[in-house]
Amino acid sequence: MALPKLEVPTYEIELPLSKKKLKYRPFLVKEQKNLLMAMESGDADTIQQNIRDILSVCTLTEGVDLDELPIIDIEYYFINLRAKSVGEISESKYRCNNTVSETKECGNIMESKINLTEIYPEAEETVDPEVRISDKIVVKMRYPQFGLIRDSINMDNITDVTFNMIANSIEYIYDGEQFHYAKETTKEELIEFIEGMNQQQFEKIEHFFNNIPRLKKKIEIVCSKCGFNHSLEVEGLESFFGL
Ligand SMILES: [Zn+2]
Questions:
Q1: Which residue, 213, 232, 226, is CA-closest to 105?
Q2: Closest CA to 165 of 212, 210, 125, 209
Q3: Residues near 101 by beta carbon (within 8 Å), at least 6 away in sequence
């Protein structure tokens, strides 16, 4: 006799940057097991691939290309998926680095609980994605997409990664008369365009990237051993999962 099928709840999320609404289900025990194994491996490539796999199977909305969503949206989605699947509270450990005597740090291991549902992307400064690099030329930028991470894994130097990221994050270039859409241009042409910028123009593009919203959270912990009051800012997926 067939065993009963277990019902799985479904949820809806609005992604903060793209404003896309997605229906999803929590991940199941077998999926969590794979994820934990990937996290334990500490290998960025494996972790990234696992996050991609889990999000794919848990997303119920049809026709969603995860690779085209902003990286921060994917991280936000994943954190919320984890909150619904495992629990909203994640425990992390931090080492107290307060100097207690001339040469010695306290070294106490402090625990902190983070409510994953309170994490939301924040930017230092809001930068207009339409970056004017000269009297005539405007470059319209967009937030780096998740697919870029996979592209970048095989590149061995940081310059290639940076230029590839910029090229992938251009939506269009307006020259005062015409719009040149990136999707109708080759990657080589885009890279050549970026390489042709002067220092000031390049800095304006960098300014956009430096102010992309990030997922971070401030936490306050008082060390139980030395009493020092720590104010920490945690950022990035790993720091929210206490690895
Ligand atoms: Zn301490």
A1: 226
A2: 209
A3: none
**Interval between CA 92 and ligand 1 midpoint (Å):** 16
Q: What angle do CA 234, 76, 166 make, to 5 degrees?
A: 90
- 154-177 confidence digits (pLDDT tens): 788 888 889 999 999 999 999 999
pTM over 0.70? The answer is yes
In sequence order, what are the beta bridge partners of 217? 234
List, in sequence order, every residue forming a beta bridge with 221; answer none if it has no partner.
Answer: 230
User: Any idea which residue has 């997926």 for tokens?
Assistant: 237
User: How remote is the CA of residue 93 from the centroid of ligand 1, in Å?
Assistant: 13
Between the CA of 99 and the centroid of ligand 1 the distance, in Å, is 8
Distance 119 CA to ligand 1 centre (A): 26
State the residue for tokens 């930017």.
Answer: 123
